[in-house]
Amino acid sequence: MGIINFQGKRDKNISAPVDQILVGDYMTTKLVTFRPNQSIEEVIETLIKHRISGGPVVNENDELIGIISEGDCMKHISESKYYNMPLDNNHTVEKNMVSNVETIDKNMNIFDAANKFISSKRRRFPIIENGKLVGQISQKDILKAALKVKGNRWK
């Protein structure tokens, strides 16, 4: 005869339900955004000024059309050097941005969002509502949320 259950008898009402902590509670809503016709040089200056690693690209209706990052700018700089072409205003965000962008729903649980960050290896996800960009969640925002959960529920 073997042991069936190592955990012993459990009461059904031992713990209170855990409140959901949603992406919308921790997303950033004051975003630095870029326009498709901006030059790469403007983007680089903005990234350095605001100490950010990238940002969403929106059209005149605040609809997300892409993301531009430090990596995209570095790629452009590297190619310019290779072809011996200096940076100029003819090289725009639209030509260098990533246009196939994954988004996250603001009603997603932060633990599910953390899992999505791990599986996709992205630094940030834009949040869209009714076709408009309403915010962005970063890995750092998820870490902040985890600290709050730890203070309230983890032992």
Explain what you see.
α5 (110-120) runs antiparallel to α6 (139-152). The chain has a two-stranded antiparallel sheet. The chain has a two-stranded antiparallel ribbon with strand order 3-4. The protein has one domain (23-152): CBS-domain (Roll), CATH 3.10.580.10. The longest helix has 14 residues, at 139-152. It has helices at residues 23-26, 40-50, 70-82, 93-96, 110-120, 139-152; strands at 54-58, 64-69, 124-129, 132-138. The chain starts with 22 loop residues before the first helix and ends with a helix. The chain is an alpha+beta fold.
Short account of what is shown:
This protein has 155 residues and is of the alpha+beta class. It is built from six helices and four strands, in the order H-H-E-E-H-H-H-E-E-H.
